[in-house]
Amino acid sequence: MTGRRERTKAANRAALVHAARDAFGALGYEAAGVRDIVRRTDLASGTFYNYFPDKEAVFRAVVEEAGTEARRRVRAARTAATSFPEFVEAGYRAYFTFIVEDPATFAFLRRNVHLLGRGWELPLGAQELAEDLRALGHEDVDYAAHAMVAVGVELGARMAEHDPPDVEGATRFATRLFLGGLGWPLS
Q: Can you give the CATH number for the domain in which 81 is found?
């Protein structure tokens, strides 16, 4: 059982991460400052530095939180698949659905997608995908996994520009691209 102090610390950190996601979504990483983040909470201004040394650290925390949830959903969808085409399609659909279903996360990703290639979360998703591909019996999966993740991120950003976002169109395109383009069996 955690004590009151630990719960308060966890709640304060969560409030700052939530506020940072909103600030970065509204203003973008470059324009948002620590003050913009703290103003979106009920916390005192100096509290921020008890949890994060700087803006980049809280940005990383937002990316890690979103990445953890996206990877959880994608991996669950791939695990439930009964064929390789379903594995690819279900993974992309889960990712694209994740992007659009929460407006705050969607705004954050849409506004800051150009920063996500810094290696913060993408390698974890590619590593998990490579493990899953290898478990299905595929070899030389490193390039394929990184390409599949990169295409997902880029298509997700493009999809975000559509009004409304076209989850099924992006899923269909990515699935066809990798099933046909990699020369792997279609069933």
A: 1.10.357
> What pLDDT, on a 0 to 100 scale, did the predictor assign at position 139?
77
Give the whole-angstrom CA distance, residue 41 versus residue 88: 40
pTM above 0.90, yes or no: no
Output the pLDDT for position 122: 64
Give, for 155, the enclosing helix (H) or strand (E). Answer: helix 141-160
Q: Residue 28 contacts by C-beta under 8 Å, 6 or more apart in sequence?
A: 111, 112
In this structure, is residue 13 part of a structural domain? no
Number of separate domains in the chain: 1
The answer to whether residue 44 is domain-embedded is no
Q: Is residue 9 part of a domain?
A: no
pLDDT beyond 70 at 104: yes
Q: How far apart are CA 169 and CA 167, in angstroms?
A: 6
**Centroid of chain to Cα 89:** 17
158 pLDDT more than 80: yes
User: pLDDT: is 160 or 175 the higher one?
Assistant: 175
Instruction: Let me know: does 133 contact 141? Beta carbons within 8 Å.
Output: yes
Range of the structural domain that residue 94 is part of: 56-181
For residue 49, tell me if it sits in a domain: no
Whole-number Å distance between alpha carbons of 46 and 36 = 13
Spatial neighbors of 152 by CB under 8 A, at least 6 apart, are 92, 95, 96, 174
Q: How big is the chain by its Cα radius of gyration, in Å?
A: 18
